[in-house]
Each structure stands twice: as structure tokens, then as C-alpha cells.
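[Discussion] Sanity-checking designs against the backbone

I'm trying to build intuition for which residues belong where. Below is a C-alpha cell string of 196 positions. I'd appreciate it if someone posts a full sequence so I can compare it with mine line by line.
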């Protein structure tokens, strides 16, 4: 079947960095513009598709490959996909990118960046205190690795930006790639476009 050019927005970052929040905000903004969106949230996937998996490197990689597989099937059929999972390992993220691009869909890696001290302070899910106290083994960023993207397509810094600002950065890129019809409707768009 001919490729209908969907895309995958791949949000990667530590727990509490803002992936789910951004994904929801983006989903709403994109739906308003008539872009069909499916959201794959890491926490949700772990309660169904990946219920059988733990947090070893092997299981984490399997989890990401599953999310990557589903997102790829959707993206190659014209759907806009937002994945919001920690996805700590570079190699598997790159693998998902390669598979997605091989199918002719776009893969946009978004590094959702936030320093660990801010995350510990936010402690959205109450996990950092426990992890820092040594009570959680294999907690990403504390007792388990997180490999920063080397060349993310977009970096959002959630300790310095509002949710709306971070979302708009991403919308600007989608616009540039031709996935939105109208303008993002913000002066930042013109500025960002001029910088390129
Ligand atoms: P994750 O999905 O990465 O585990 P969450 O989205 O559950 O993280 O939590 C992120 C927290 O950070 C929320 O309380 C959110 O309101 C806050 N936050 C502050 N600034 C931003 C931003 N620019 N983008 C996303 N979240 C932000």
C-alpha cells in the first residue's frame, strides 16, 4: 500500500520530566487542527501490552520495541503517533527510528529534558524520594541508566518552559515538516522559521 505519510513523535526522558503532560497537550492541540492522533503512553502500555515485563535492560528494550512496532504500523498508515515512554536506551530508540523511516513515515525524537534535582523536587509520582533512599532498584536516572539522545530533533526543557511553550516548539517542527495545514498561530513560528 502506498505510504500515506504519518509521523511518530517520540518523547523520551526521565520519569516526571513531562512526557505524558506534553503528549496530552499536543494531542488536544493537534486534534483541534484536524490531525488524527494516537497516543501510546508508557505507563498505560505497561498495564496492558507489556504487562508481562519488568525493568531489566532486556525487558525495557522489549517494551520499547513493542511500542515502536505499534507506532510504526500506525504511522505508515497516515496516523500521527505520540509515544510517551522513558525509552532509556539510545540503540533501541535508533532502531525504532530506522524501522519507521524505512516505511516512509517520519520519526521525530523529542528529548524531554529536566535536571534530576528538579524532578526529585517535583516528585510527581512519589518515586524519586524512594529511589534516592535506595528503596527502588532499577529506577531510571537514579539506579538505572538513561542515555541522552545525541541528536534529538527537538529538545524541550521543562524546568524552563511552560507546557504550552514546549508544545509549541514541537508544533513548529511538525509545521515545518508539512504535517499541519495552518500556521501554529504564534509569532514564535515566524522567528523559528527565520532562524533555520
Ligand atoms: P512523565 O510522563 O515524563 O513521567 P508527567 O507528565 O507525568 O511526566 O509529569 C510532569 C510534571 O511536570 C507535571 O506535573 C507537569 O505539569 C510539569 N511540567 C512543568 N513544565 C512542563 C513542561 N514544559 N512540559 C511538561 N510538563 C511540565
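Best answer:
Here's mine. Compare freely.
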Amino acid at each position: 500500500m502506498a505510504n500515506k505519510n504519518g509521523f511518530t513523535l517520540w518523547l523520551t526522558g526521565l520519569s516526571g520530566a513531562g512526557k505524558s503532560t506534553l503528549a496530552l497537550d499536543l494531542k488536544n492541540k493537534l486534534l483541534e487542527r484536524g490531525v488524527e492522533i494516537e497516543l501510546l503512553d508508557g505507563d498505560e502500555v505497561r498495564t496492558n501490552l507489556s504487562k508481562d515485563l519488568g525493568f531489566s535492560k532486556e525487558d525495557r528494550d522489549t517494551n520499547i520495541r513493542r511500542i515502536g512496532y505499534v507506532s510504526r504500523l500506525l504511522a505508515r498508515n497516515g496516523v500521527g503517533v505520540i509515544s510517551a515512554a522513558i525509552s532509556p536506551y539510545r540503540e533501541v530508540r535508533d532502531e525504532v527510528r530506522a524501522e519507521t523511516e524505512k516505511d516512509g513515515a517520519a520519526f521525530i525524537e523529542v528529548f524531554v529534558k529536566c535536571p534530576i534535582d528538579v524532578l526529585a523536587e517535583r516528585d510527581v509520582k512519589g518515586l524519586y524520594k524512594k529511589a534516592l533512599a535506595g528503596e527502588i532498584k532499577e529506577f531510571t536516572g537514579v539506579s538505572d541508566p538513561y542515555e541522552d539522545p545525541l541528536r534529538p530533533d527537538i529538545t524541550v526543557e521543562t524546568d524552563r518552559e511552560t507546557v504550552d511553550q514546549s508544545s509549541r516548539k514541537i508544533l513548529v517542527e511538525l509545521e515545518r515538516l508539512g504535517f499541519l495545514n495552518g500556521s501554529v498561530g504564534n509569532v514564535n513560528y515566524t522567528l523559528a522559521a527565520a532562524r533555520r
